[in-house]
Structures are given as structure tokens and as C-alpha cells.
Design brief:
CATH architecture of chain B: Orthogonal Bundle
Largest sheet of chain A: 6 strands, mixed
Number of strands of chain A: 10
Strand order of the largest sheet of chain A: 6-7-8-3-9-10
Largest sheet of chain B: none
CATH class of the largest domain in chain A: Alpha Beta
Radius of gyration of chain A: 18 Å
Oligomer: heterodimer
Order of helices and strands of chain A: EEEHEEHEHHHHEHEHEEH
CATH class of chain B: Mainly Alpha
CATH superfamily of the largest domain in chain A: P-loop containing nucleotide triphosphate hydrolases
Distance between the termini of chain B: 31 Å
Number of domains of chain B: 1
Shape of chain A: globular
Chain lengths: ~240, ~250
């Protein structure tokens, strides 16, 4: 479904590429965890998937069509099919829980409808259902800045769910949460992934979480792929190869 | 910032030279305050206040508020969309950014008084040219201030809006406006307060309102009315400042 062919990304002014010559493919049903030290290129890799980060060399293909060959409209189509969650949640402050979730539909609606907040009652119902799915027990009208980190991430997941995504991307979604909350969020992600038969690709620092939830682990070091395999194949030696200086 | 460093000596020296130069240029001389009594005598003429014209002056004060309110509100309405073109992160193209910034700088560099004088030739005397003069200058000021708020906004929500496939302008609007809104309101109320004072100046060139009355009362030596004008002006500024604070408190 998603293919990386010789993908490299070099930021302007950087001496070395952030990711180098990546060749990977992902199919429906895979729950992939991406491991690597800070600066290994994990975020760049994740952002290349939905075109938030343009590639310098190579191609990222969706169903055999390169992102760079797609029209602007097709690119937006790819993005609305991709639910993405972030380390800092990236919610819109001073807006309520339900309003934030409804912004997940922005890709599907006309600009004037988004501007005027013209959402149908069924769309509002879907937003409320998404709140229930992520087991969020706060008032939908509550402002997001008044929520805890775990609650904010649940809102972000609900925003991604309402997109009815085919692909779920997570850029270190649990890095700023305590271990208990992190595990609950991962359980939720895995459950949603299984129910909807998605491709999920999640950056994570916690090897334990990756081994517990992933169906496949890939690891990057200095932008290069150094591991791609099953969680049970990921051993101490591999751990040292990723994280040791 | 706090600790004195050797390198700051030059800055300090430059500052002293500039202060000395400015003191000479402005004939700054505190010994001139020895004629302080004159001021006391002059102010004594302001009292007792002549409250007979209070209803009329109150009406003129409302006109001043209306001039300032429209001048600030219309200024904000035009400045808000322009500020997105004048911010590096939302302009979309360097050319658009440069042109918009230049346009805002131009509007800002022309004082309301000058705009007022120019507009008088077409619009004649009265409050209307005063409103337009304040609108034009406020577009320049608010446009720049808001564009700087936009540039300093958190990029996270913008990235999230890109990721959901929102149109760029809708994404920018929703990701940025809620973040900067309390500060936009602050700027608006500050500009509203400034516009009250500006409309007083515009009264000198026939802009109407309490400013024009103040000018007339001064020129005709009616100091007991001048004191009423000044009191009304002070009240207007204090009330607007208080209202602005309350509204901002509610919005935050």
C-alpha cells in the first residue's frame, strides 16, 4: 500500500541527510513501531509518508502512485485518509473537545462550510462517538487546554478517527505521557488499528511498548535503516546497535 | 542581560552620548520649573467647572467615541486578513509578504493628522474624514502587530491542519486565530484608546467631537469648560481601558 523507494531527505544547510536511501513497504494490518535515538530521522520518515515533508531523492508511493506525481487535490486526499497524532498533541487551543475533533473533517468539506462551522448532525454524532471510542470522559464542550496530557492525546486520536483513516501515523505520541497513560494510549491505538484494519506506523522511544504492541519493528540510526523485523527478533544486540554511542 | 559585561560599555557610552545630544536639542532645562506658579495660576482658572454645557459636551464625547470605535474596528477588519499576507509563515510567497509589509509600513508612516488634512479636500469638514484617517493608520499599525503575533504562533496546530488535508488558508486561520485572539483584542483596545486621543487632535482640523470643543474652548479662553472637556476625556479613556480588560478577561 505504501512504498519507500530509495528515499532520502536532506534539509537545507544540513551536512548529512536526515534519512538515507530507505526502501520499505507497508501493507494493511501492519502495526509498525519505529525505533531510534533522537535525531535518527524518525519524525522525518513519518512526515514523508503523508507528504508533510517532501523527499530530496527517491519516491514515496501510495498504491503504486508517487506522491510527487500527484496533483494538489490528490495530495489532500492522501492526507485526509491519514490520521496523524503528534507528541505535543497539536490541538487548537481555546477550542472545545468536540470542535477540535470536528477539525478532522476539514479535508472532506468545502472551505465555507469549515469557516462557518457547518457540520451536519450526523457528523456531530460521529464526533461524539469518537469521544466514546477513545474513552474520553470529559464534557465535549470543555476547552482542550484544561485537559491532562492523556486526555489531550485521546482528543487527538479522536480527531484522527473521525477522518475515517486508512493509515494511522504517530510521531512519538506517548513521549510526553507517564508510563501508565502511555500504555493505555497504545492499547487504544492497537484496538482501533485492529478494528479498522489500518496501516499504523508509530514512532516510539519505549522499546517495551514496541515489543508488546507492534507486529513489525523498524529501527533507524543516523537516517539509515538498521533493523526491520518481527518484535521477537529484536534482541539486546539490536538495542545496543540503536541506542549505544 | 542582567550582568554587566565589558562589551556593554560601548552601548552604555553610546546611550550617554545620545541622551546628552537629545537634551541639548530639546533645550531640556529643569530650572525652568522655577516659574511653576504660572502653571498653578493657569490651572486655577479651570475651576469651578462650568457644567451648564455638560449635556452638549457629553454628546460630543459620544461622537469622539464613535469616531474612535469605527476607526479602530474597521482598521482591525482590514488589518486582520492583510496580516496573514504580511507574516512570513502564512504569506505563501516572499513577494506577497514584501509587498504587504511595505504597504502596511506606508500606512503606518503617515500620521492620522496628515491623512485627515488630505481627506478634508474631498470629504470636507466633519467626523467622516476623521474616521477614515484613523482607519488607514490603524490598518498599518494593527496589520504589523498582528502579523508578528502570527509569526510567533505555535506551529503544531498548523501542522495538524495540514495533516488532516485542510485547505491551506482554512488551516492557517483555524490553527492561528484562536491562539492569537486574546492578544489581538488587547491590541484592538489599546488602539481604540489611542484613537480617542487621536480624534482629539483631528478635532483641531474640524474632525468634530470633544477634541474640537477643547480646541475652541482653549482658543476662546473658556477654561472652566476646558476642565469639563478634560474630565470627560479622562473618563472615556478610563472606561475603555476597563471595558477592554473585562472583555479580554472573558475571552481568555
Amino acid at each position: 500500500m505504501i512504498k519507500f523507494e530509495n528515499v532520502s531527505v536532506k534539509y537545507p544547510g544540513a551536512a548529512e541527510p536526515a534519512i538515507k536511501d530507505l526502501n520499505l513497504s507497508f501493507e494493511r494490518g501492519e502495526f509498525v513501531c519505529v525505533l531510534g535515538r533522537s535525531g535518527a530521522g524518525k519524525s522525518t520518515f513519518i512526515r514523508c509518508i503523508n507528504g508533510l515533508q517532501p523527499v530530496s531523492e527517491g519516491t514515496v508511493k501510495w498504491n503504486e502512485k508517487s506522491l510527487s506525481d500527484m496533483t494538489h487535490k490528490e495530495n489532500l486526499e492522501i492526507r485526509r485518509k491519514t490520521g496523524m497524532i503528534f507528541q505535543q498533541f497539536n490541538l487548537i487551543p481555546r477550542m472545545s473537545v468536540v470542535q477540535n475533533i470536528l477539525t478532522g473533517l476539514f479535508g472532506y468539506k468545502k472551505s465555507y462550510q469549515n469557516l462557518l462551522g457547518l457540520f451536519s448532525s450526523s457528523e456531530r454524532m460521529t464526533a461524539i462517538e469518537a469521544i466514546q471510542q477513545v474513552e474520553l470522559t470529559v464534557e465535549p464542550t470543555r476547552r482542550v487546554e484544561n485537559l491532562s496530557g492523556g486526555q489531550k492525546q485521546r482528543v487527538a486520536i479522536a480527531r484522527a478517527l473521525i477522518q475515517n483513516p486508512k493509515v494511522f501515523l504517530g510521531d512519538e505520541p506517548v513521549a510526553s505521557l507517564d508510563p501508565g497513560t502511555a500504555e493505555r494510549i497504545f492499547s487504544l491505538l492497537k484496538e482501533t488499528h485492529s478494528k479498522r484494519n489500518l496501516v499504523s506506523i508509530i514512532n516510539v522511544h519505549d522499546v517495551g511498548l514496541a515489543k508488546k504492541f507492534a507486529t513489525r519493528i523498524i529501527a533507524l540510526r543516523e537516517g539509515k535503516l538498521i533493523f526491520d523485523g518481527l518484535p521477537e527478533q529484536f534482541n539486546e544486540e539490536m538495542y545496543a546497535a540503536i541506542y549505544n554511542q | 542581560m542582567v550582568w554587566f559585561k565589558k562589551g556593554q560599555f560601548f552601548v552604555f557610552l553610546t546611550l550617554i552620548v545620545l541622551v546628552g545630544f537629545s537634551l541639548r536639542m530639546t533645550e531640556f532645562d529643569l530650572s525652568k520649573f522655577q516659574d511653576f506658579e504660572n502653571m498653578g495660576d493657569f490651572l486655577a482658572k479651570w475651576f469651578p467647572m462650568n457644567t451648564e454645557s455638560l449635556p452638549y459636551l457629553f454628546q460630543e464625547s459620544l461622537l469622539t467615541i464613535a469616531i474612535a470605535f469605527l476607526g479602530s474596528l474597521f482598521g482591525l477588519l482590514f488589518a486582520l486578513p492583510l496580516s496573514f499576507f504580511a507574516a512570513r509563515n502564512t504569506s505563501g510567497h516572499r513577494f506577497i509578504f514584501t509587498i504587504t509589509r511595505f504597504f502596511l509600513s506606508f500606512l503606518r508612516s503617515v500620521p492620522e493628522f496628515v491623512f485627515g488634512l488630505i481627506l478634508l479636500t474631498t470629504l470636507g469638514l466633519g467626523p467622516f474624514p476623521a474616521v477614515i484617517a484613523i482607519v488607514l493608520h490603524n490598518i498599518g499599525v494593527l496589520g504589523k502587530l498582528i502579523s508578528e503575533l502570527i509569526e510567533a504562533a505555535d506551529k503544531g496546530p498548523m501542522e495538524a491542519m495540514s495533516a488532516v488535508g485542510a485547505q491551506r488558508w482554512i488551516g492557517n486561520l483555524f490553527a492561528i486565530l484562536p491562539q492569537i485572539w486574546p492578544n489581538v483584542l488587547s491590541q484592538f483596545f489599546y488602539r481604540f484608546e489611542v484613537a480617542i486621543r487621536t480624534s482629539l487632535i483631528l478635532g483641531l482640523i474640524g474632525g468634530g467631537g470633544i477634541g474640537q470643543q477643547l480646541f475652541i474652548h482653549f482658543k476662546t479662553f473658556q477654561y472652566q469648560l476646558v476642565s469639563v472637556d478634560v474630565l470627560l476625556i479622562m473618563l472615556m479613556v478610563i472606561i475603555i481601558d476597563y471595558m477592554g480588560g473585562k472583555i479580554r478577561e472573558k475571552v481568555i
